[in-house]
Amino acid sequence: MRANYGYKDGSGEYFITIQTDACADCAGHPCVAACPQNAFEIIEDDYDDRVAAITEDLRHKLKYACAPCKPVSDPPPLPCVEACPGNAIEHSW
Ligand code: SF4
Ligand code: SF4
User: What single-letter DSSP state applies at residue 20?
Assistant: First the structure.
């Protein structure tokens, strides 16, 4: 399942999409430790699988929370995307 977390405002769309099928088989859920803003948490979904989600608090401020990971010039790979063995994390911006 694709789970979308984020929002739109006048400046754009700021969504993180998590392909939760990959999370059920993910050892250690490394996205949680990789994110310097503690954006990820592990929850139990409707199928009793443990999957990654974005914390309630950060769902409404992703543009600002992720800004340090996304410098305008020469952005490095994102820590969350790099850490994910399932290639399950996408950012809309
Ligand atoms: S690292 Fe990737 S596959 Fe593993 S729990 Fe996090 S988002 Fe899911
Ligand atoms: S871009 Fe950075 S702050 Fe945003 S979710 Fe990924 S690791 Fe966390």
Answer: H
Q: What backbone phi and psi angles, to 5 degrees, belong to 16?
A: -110, 125
Nearest ligand, CA of residue 14?
A: 2
pTM of the model: 0.95
C-alpha dist (Å) from residue 4 to 1, 73, 74, 75: 10, 27, 26, 23
Task: Residue 40: name the closest of 18, 21, 68, 11 by CA.
Answer: 18
Q: Are 86 and 22 in contact (CB under 8 A)?
A: yes
Each residue's pLDDT tens digit, 27-73: 999 999 999 999 999 999 999 999 999 999 999 999 999 999 999 99
53 lines ligand 1 (CB under 6 A): no
